[in-house]
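Now for today's protein:

——
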Amino acid sequence: VSSVSIYILYNITHRSRCLCIDVSDKLVAPKEIKAIEILPPSSTCDNVEMIVRLKNGNSYCLDPKFKRLILKLKK
């Protein structure tokens, strides 16, 4: 039981260090995008994170595993 508790606690604290909690598979119109940041896995987060910064000041996270999105970004 204690090993399960430790794993759950580690998983909760570990996730909180990632910038992207929720990810989307939708890309807004390119004219609305200011920048796209791709953050590799690090010591604080095991995930690749893609953050879209919009011209209006908002930002959201994209799912880096979404293949159709990656093809659009290559164009």
